[in-house]
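User: Can you write out an input/output pair for a complex, sequences first and structure second?

Assistant: Here is one pair. Inputs:
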Amino acid sequence: MLDIKKIRADFPILKRNVNGKPLVYLDNAATSQTPQQVIDAIVDYYQNYNANIHRGVHTLSQEATDKYEQARNKIQKHFNAAKAYEIIFTSGTTHSINLVANGFSSLIKKGDEILVSAMEHHSNIVPWQMLCERTGALLKVIPMNQEGELRMDVYDELLNNKTKLVFCNHISNALGTINPIEEIIEKAHKVGAAVLIDGAQAAPHLIADVQALDVDFYTCSAHKICGPTGVGMLYGKENWLNKLPPYQGGGEMIAEVTFEKTTYAGLPHKFEAGTPNICGGIAFGAALDYMNAIGFEEIAKYEHELLEYATQELLKIDGLKIYGTAKNKTSVISFNIEGIHPYDMGSILDKLGIAVRTGHHCAQPIMDFYKIPGTVRASFAFYNTLEEVDVLITGVLKAKSMLL
Amino acid sequence: MEIKDIQEEIIDEFSMFDDWMQRYEYMIDLGKSLPLINEAYKTEDNIIKGCQSKVWVHAELENNKLIFTADSDAIITKGIIAILIRVFSNQKPQDILDADTQFIDEIGLKEHLSPTRANGLVSMIKQLKLYAVAYQTQIED
């Protein structure tokens, strides 16, 4: 059992008021809040050992380098990567995906096929469209059903020996659906396609074992798992990372530079040009420490309880429809009330101190699928409470009475 | 009524409210009472960009005055439009161009809207003034 009271005490922001009401933060799928332990790691870095890494001879530089590489090791261990250098620090999931999409420019040719799922975030659609424009490859979409589950029967039909890449999120940010990535990966590999799984929404809820999954690329952002913004990671299998050319040129990523020719550094530095987000990387490690100390099994169990209760209570409201009713889903609830624009609902809830997301959640194709302008999305984290679900329900009812 | 007088009237009305819940309720009522736009005018061309919700504005000249009709798929946005139409519709294009929009700050509208909605509000005013520019040249012609 999680001690929620004790956990909440770790998050200074949860004590604040918004519009005169205690903050009820239900926008965790957009970004999670930061515990004191992570804030302390950030402060400790700037107060005690701020220095540029990898090249310094002095003590501070050595300390910063050690901590940064320790963070990489923590991430490696967390995702069970075979090698630490298979973990590339990036600015976040979008950066990770662009790095891979860019790298595949030289490996993809006209007529090749790339599959993306119908429930992708724009960040996992647009880079591949750009890749297709550059190479003449064809982008095909794995459709979903009304419940917001991928049509695996159609996936089987789409796969063929021209399929070179498959991209899919582990968990949909707009619907909460947990996708059957084991099956997706296994089937893609049978036709020789590489698979990138966007784990941005999964990382806060479960641990992905990249070796067990046999996934080629996996990515996530620190700010969704209690870490800071502007840092994330890309896991890539060593042989794939060696095949991909560097994404950006600069310092740190080179072995030798002359004006005639530059040779690139080995992994992971080949993909880490310039001074990285050192503090961010270290805080990312601290965030994983924090969440692992609480325990992902406990987190998942508790969040499921929040999901069940919130779903049950929301469905009692007349005219309310939930989008994304997959059997296997995380604590994300996208909903609308008939006759009410999600933006209006979100505005009233904000006045009541309740933070939710409204709009298309950077997943316009999903909204087009349901023929709606957007949804209200409440997403729960392990520090939310059943009482906060009640506040949400009261808020939704209040907004409904005002708006209808 | 002149634009300035209408603005004063709105400032008075808003000063009666104690909190933002009441102001929202008032705007929602305004939104619900906004006269319907002719469906034929709800075209892509008439959509104002910069809103999370859709906003359509149509303008036509009657007796040298500009008549605005508008709609939105979100009700609070409709309330904002209703306020703007009350101020700027049925006015001469030159008067619309000359009008300042200080009253929006005075009723505290912008600071109590979400950033995207505040941007939308700015876009709406810009669009109304652009119509005024366009029709002003028609009158001069």
